[in-house]
Specification:
This is YuzF family protein. By secondary structure, the protein is mainly beta. The chain contains 1 helix and 5 strands; from the N terminus they run H-E-E-E-E-E.
Length: about 70
């Protein structure tokens, strides 16, 4: 292995992806390993989600998600 190459690994959790795909457009709370976010779930991709908080998109890796819950209005 060349010392200049770094192996990249992508983990795909089909259950999380499928479940989150059903609630796109709703307000959610996401607990990550770094803290929590509350906002609108805009996009779900196999490796990340996009949560919009006060007009600002936050890209969260699915690997970093601890739990997700619909936000209480």
């Amino acid at each position: 292995m060349n010392s200049g190459n770094v192996p990249m690994y992508a983990f795909f959790d089909p259950y999380v992806y499928q479940t989150l795909s059903t609630i796109v457009g709703t307000n959610i709370v996401v607990q990550t390993t770094q803290g929590s976010l509350r906002g609108a779930l805009k996009t779900v991709m196999p490796d990340h989600i996009v949560v919009e908080v006060s007009g600002t998109p936050f890209f969260v890796r699915i690997q970093e998600i601890v739990w997700v819950s619909p936000a209480q209005e």
